[in-house]
Design goal:
Layout lengths: L7 E6 L5 E2 L4 E8 L8 E3 L5 H9 L5 E4 L2 E14 L3 E8 L4 H12 L4 E13 L5 E14 L6 E3 L9 H21 L1
GO molecular function: peptidase activity
Pfam families: Peptidase_S78
Keywords: Hydrolase, Protease, Viral release from host cell
Length: 185
């Protein structure tokens, strides 16, 4: 049974703007405005504004995950902001965790070179080319990923509206069930 959380993902290569320092600080663009992905979606400037404001006002942070797995946080995003180009992030890999150390090593070796956002669409419209113009997104997380593409998108599940806590719980249950099933095989 597939649980529809409404969570979607978009990939972006770290690109020229990414830096990774010796103290495991990473920064770069997680999303670029005005670029249509393979799914026909185009994130518009200002799409993250309300979500970032709400997170700031409640003292919450965008999560840094490994491969979109909510059971594997690997660091913290210290800065997440929109500028004229897109969604810029700066954070620290937590090398006190095994996955954080692994992620830092993989980035430095060039094996991992991408970011992907996890979000839920709040407002969108279609243009005359059939593209979905994303004008308001609820940003949940920015992950380090193996297979980034720019422009490109991976859609997880679309549809129902769950509150964030219930959605994360549902996502975690799906991952736990998949792991258990794989262990049985």
């Amino acid at each position: 049974m597939e649980i529809d959380t409404g969570l979607e993902h978009k990939f972006a290569r770290f690109g020229d703007g990414l830096t990774v320092t010796d103290d495991a600080v990473i920064e770069g663009y997680a999303s670029l405005f005005g670029q249509t992905d393979q799914g026909g979606d185009n994130v518009q400037k200002g799409a993250y504004r309300a979500s970032l404001k709400a997170l700031f006002e409640t003292g919450q942070r965008v999560k840094m995950l490994w491969q979109h797995d909510p059971a594997q946080p690997i660091g913290v995003w210290d800065e997440v902001r929109e500028d004229d180009k897109g969604l810029w992030v700066k954070g620290r890999l937590l090398e006190t965790t095994q996955k954080g150390r692994e992620a830092a090593a993989l980035i430095q070796a060039g094996a991992i070179d991408g970011l992907s956002i996890g979000y839920r669409t709040k407002r969108a419209s279609k243009n005359d080319k059939g593209q979905r113009l994303l004008t308001e997104l609820e940003l949940w997380e920015v992950s380090l990923v193996t297979f980034p593409m720019l422009p490109s998108a991976r859609v997880a599940a679309k549809g129902t509206t769950l509150d964030a806590e219930d959605a994360w719980r549902s996502i975690a249950e799906v991952f736990d069930s998949a792991r258990q099933e794989m262990a049985r095989r």
